[in-house]
Design goal:
Helix content is 19%, strand content 41%. The protein is of the alpha+beta class. The chain folds into two domains: 96 residues, Transcription Regulator spoIIAA (2-Layer Sandwich); 312 residues, no CATH class.
């Protein structure tokens, strides 16, 4: 089979020539996957020169019709040959796949977004309806970890409903202090919560994170040794695309810095759902409770305390990232943030949950629905505290993003709970 790709009007078209059978269906699927990962959500297959289609080929058509329809995209068949059209009619798929309906349009807000392209990364700014400002509370003392002064009695119980986000060092609560002492103790690890979904990577040897999603009367709850949580409504949604930049991506620090500059914010909270080209981070692999036999952040003991991840993605991934950044951190925030620029221009703290690739809908998105859809049958692979390691030839660099969505807004008030 021959596969050629062209662009016609507003659709990305794959022209096929030959037999669309089991032998070639995987090749067609790979070509469609490549187009989707390249940001194409309006895709058509031109089957004018296809002499035969089997059930394997039909399966590919149905799979990508469902996938792209679910993200407000479009997938259809053009110029079906007589042989192909006969099969589609027998299976009653012509109305589904062969009509000329316009592609599904993304949800819009009624006003055109503002476009910014100063850094080569195209950013669309959509203003959202926001009735409640973002208020943040921080709790615990991060510096107590290295000193070995963490204990379960000082942990805070933090509930994450659909209006709150946050991150920290936490473990899922099991309902009673006595039981928590037995089960939470060895489990504290990197955690994040976004719009009712909480993901936590325990330090009890678990290879994959655990997670809970708010539903009905269930509200996920963490016991947190330290962390940050903010509640309210994000006033802005940004869609960004960095494919035209050198390397086809933008670093997390550069993107966050650009957003702070655009809005002239001193501090802000962020949630990203984005395709990543590289991830750089670390997570605890030992319980942070109790006295330490060694200083965790000094070499070589750091190898016994932290697992590091710093490599380009060999396969496309989607990262759910949340955190806070500030240009001049207020006193309450400063202990929780780390420099995000070589000149200490600003600081931040971000955690990321990593997922297998799935396409993100275009246009204006609802945060809660987007997170729910991301986790629908797509369990998180890991949770990382994101790092920035630059300045030397051997440095790991930092997290790089290709495209995605960012919900963000300034923090109105900060409260520090002891």
């Amino acid at each position: 089979m021959e596969i050629q790709t062209i662009r016609r009007e507003n659709a990305f078209v794959l022209e096929l020539k030959g037999r669309f059978d089991a032998n070639w269906s995987s090749h067609v699927a790979a070509a469609v996957d490549t187009a989707i990962q390249g940001g194409e959500h309006t895709i058509a297959l031109d089957l004018q020169q296809v002499s035969y289609i089997s059930s394997a080929g039909i399966g590919v058509l149905i799979r990508y019709f469902r996938q792209l329809t679910s993200v407000k995209g479009s997938f259809r068949v053009l110029n079906a040959s007589g042989e192909v059209l006969t099969v589609l009619k027998l299976m009653k798929l012509t109305a589904l796949l062969c009509d000329d309906r316009s592609p599904a349009r993304p949800l819009t807000m009624g006003t055109a977004p503002q476009i910014h392209d100063d850094t080569g990364c195209r950013i669309e700014v959509h203003q959202l309806t926001s009735r409640q400002p973002l208020n943040c509370r921080v709790f615990g003392h991060p510096d107590q970890f290295a000193a070995g002064r963490f204990n379960l009695a000082s942990a805070h119980s933090v509930r994450f409903d659909t209006s709150s986000c946050g991150l920290g060092l936490g473990a899922f609560s099991v309902g009673s202090s006595e039981t928590d002492s037995e089960t939470c103790g060895p489990s504290f690890g990197e955690s994040l919560g976004v719009a009712g979904a909480v993901i936590q990577h325990a330090t009890d040897g678990s290879r994959v994170p655990d997670f809970q999603i708010a539903a009905e009367d269930l509200v996920p709850e963490l016991r947190m040794l330290y962390g940050m949580q903010w509640s309210g409504e994000f006033p802005n949604l940004l869609r960004f695309e960095a494919a035209r930049r050198s390397g086809g991506s933008i670093s997390l620090s550069e993107l966050v810095s650009e957003i702070l500059r655009l809005f002239e914010w001193k501090n802000a909270a962020f949630v990203f759902v984005a395709e990543s080209t590289s991830l750089v981070g670390a997570r605890l692999i030992q319980s942070p409770l109790g006295p330490k036999d060694s200083v965790p952040f000094e070499y070589p003991a750091v190898r016994d305390w932290l697992s590091f991840f710093s490599q380009p993605d060999r396969e496309p991934r989607v990262a759910l990232i949340t955190g806070i950044a500030a240009r001049q951190p207020q006193t309450e925030l400063a202990p929780f943030l780390r420099p995000m620029a070589d000149d200490d221009q600003f600081a931040g703290h971000f955690h990321a949950a990593v997922f297998h690739y799935s396409p993100l809908p275009k246009g204006v998105l609802n945060l809660q629905i987007t997170v729910r859809d991301l986790m629908q049958g797509n369990v998180p692979q890991s949770v990382w505290h994101l790092l920035r390691d630059t300045g030397t030839l051997e440095s790991a660099g930092e997290t790089e993003l290709m495209r995605g969505a960012c919900w963000c807004g300034p923090i109105s008030a900060i409260t520090h709970l002891p």
